[in-house]
Amino acid sequence: MALVRQTKKKWTDFLTCRQVLNIMVILGFMFNYMLRVNLTIAIVDMVESNTTNNTSTNSTKTRIDETRFNWNPEQYNAVLGSFFWGYVLTELPGGRMAEIVGARKIFGGGMLMASILTILTPAAAYLNYYVILILRAVLGFFLGATWPAIQPMAAKWIPPMERSKFIANMMASSLGAAITMPVCGYLISTVGWASVFYVTGVIGIVWSIMWFCLIYDSPAEHPRISEEEREDIEAKIADGEGGKNSKPSYVPWKRIFLSLPVWAIIITHGCSVFGYFTVVNQLPTYMKNVLHFNIKKNGLLSSLPYLAKYIMAIIASYFADRLRKSGKLSTTATRKVFTTFAIMIPGCLMAVQAIWGMDATLSVAVFTISLFFNGAVTAGYLANALDIAPNFSGTIFGLANTLSSFGGWLSTKIVAVLTAEESTFATWKYVFWILVFTYVFGALFYLLFGSGKLQKWNNPDEAYGQDGKELQPLKSKPEIEKEREINNIA
């Protein structure tokens, strides 16, 4: 019997619960973006072609025989944009709800509902144009709550000096986009556009079931975690954050809105995402109309910006955590260095584009390298809410993402206005100079007002705070109670 017990191994002997969490979060953000961008690929085949030239006719004959829709350009863009109608509504509530009820329910529940709605998308399109508009808005409503939910989970599971690497998992969304594009293209060409929604929806549902089976809000709540792993995580969080803490009973909204470090995160995130949306969404239009080079026809080139950003996110986060652990840089210095690096370099590259952007090869290189460096935001401001206020990290990220969600809409409006008369390099130069200003402003604002120090209002119930310290513990009530039980048994 003793021999049998020694040879029998559990899955936790091969993978720790924290490693499982990392894997599920990476896959979660990949599939999160998959559910978001699948329509942008499928809609090209969903809409009936109105052209009558021979080339278009021949191309149409090769398409899978299925129902298509006579949507005009206004309806076409409304379907694409309806996602954001719901998306912006749940960024802030999603972050706050994750702090109250836990990220497991908010992130997993949002993904599950979005996956079900994805499967229903073809039926909604067949039923009525307005039905698919509403469905996509509701889908955005559920996915909007997922992004800010991951910060409160990091505060419970990840030691302070390792959080940059964990936050880098969010950039797996870029990897998801890079993979989804060619996969959906293959599905459309072989099975038809409806298959895109069925396949991606089923993948999302399978992931959601696994999430609820494998992931819990804290080590203390996990039924399968080993005592060694739980104690190691809790000890590192306590040691790194230095002191005991209680869960706040209310949100100090006034102090949050008057906090310059919070606004440094919000403003910088808005500037960075504005640049990202403009580059990713408008690059194909610029390349096609001005340089007469259709980047969408080259699968590798269309995926390069997404892949580049994810690679840099991993590299920068690794070095940021090592620098903080070694004591060579403080948390404040680390966040400022990597934020400046991630945003100022793209700003300089946009200046290069504004001056010498008439060359297609140079333009592809500039945009790809720009997004590559921008991936370093995971080691900068993106993880900063966990430094200054772990108790309200979801709320802060929700505020930041609410503002940045308007970036995609604003960039399309700016490009539309500036290129309304003619789409030439002379008119597009103004777009690039706006990006230069936006990037540089964001970098300088964070450099002046960003901070890695714990804010006193992180513990509003306490009579005094620990302003000036860079980290502070964050334990939930279940964690504290379980710790007491263990101590009593001992």
Automatic annotation (TrEMBL):
GO terms for molecular function: symporter activity. GO terms for cellular component: membrane. Pfam families: MFS_1 (PF07690). It is a multi-pass membrane protein. It is found in: Membrane. The chain crosses the membrane at residues 20-44, 133-154, 166-189, 195-216, 256-279, 299-316, 337-356, 362-383, 395-418, 430-449. Residues 20-454 form the Major facilitator superfamily (MFS) profile domain. This is Major facilitator superfamily (MFS) profile domain-containing protein. GO terms for biological process: monoatomic anion transport. PANTHER family: GH05102P (PTHR11662:SF411), SOLUTE CARRIER FAMILY 17 (PTHR11662). Keywords: Membrane, Symport, Transmembrane, Transmembrane helix, Transport. InterPro entries: MFS, MFS_dom, MFS_Na/Anion_cotransporter, MFS_trans_sf. It comes from Dendroctonus ponderosae.
